[in-house]
Amino acid sequence: MSRIGKLPVNFASDIKVSTNGDVITFAKGKNSVDLDTKGNVDFSVESSTLSFTSKSDEKAHRAFWGTYRALAQNIVTGLTDGYTKELEINGVGYRAAVKGRVLNLQLGFSHDINFDLPEGIEANVEKNLITLKGHDKQALGQAAAEIRAFRPPEPYKGKGVKYKQEHIVRKAGKTAKK
Asked: What is the pTM of this model?
C-alpha cells in the first residue's frame, strides 16, 4: 500500500476542482492546470479533498497511485503558494537582466544569451541573484536547469551559474615544481 497515495489532497475553497473522464482540472483565478491520469488511477472529489485509489493490484498501478497524488499536491501547492527557484551568478563580468519575457545573460561568451521565459514563469534579477517564480513546479525546475546549463559552475574557481543552496566541491589547482 502506498504511504503517499493513501493521503488525501486538501485544497482551499478558492481552488475549483473539476473532472472530465480521466482529466482533473484545478483552477484558481486566471490560472488553470490539467492533470491527465490516463486511466491509471481512480479518484474522487468530496468538498475540499481529493482522494486517489489504485486501479488494481498491479505494480504499475500501485506506482501511479502515489505519483499522481504527488502531482496533484504539487499543483495545489503551486496554485496557493507558488514555487521559487534562486540561481546565483558567480564570475567577473557575468551579468543578467530581464527585458520583458526575455532573460538576458552575459556569461563570458562572445555573445549574449537571450532565454525566453516559459509561460507562467516570472524572473527577477538583483545583482548576481536570479529569482524565478511560478505555479508549475515542473516548468519552473526545467527553466532553472536550462539557465544553469548555459554555464554550469566549474570546480576550480567556482565561476558559473549555480542554484543558491548548491555547494560546489572545489578542486585544488596545479602545484608549482620544486
From this structure: 0.87
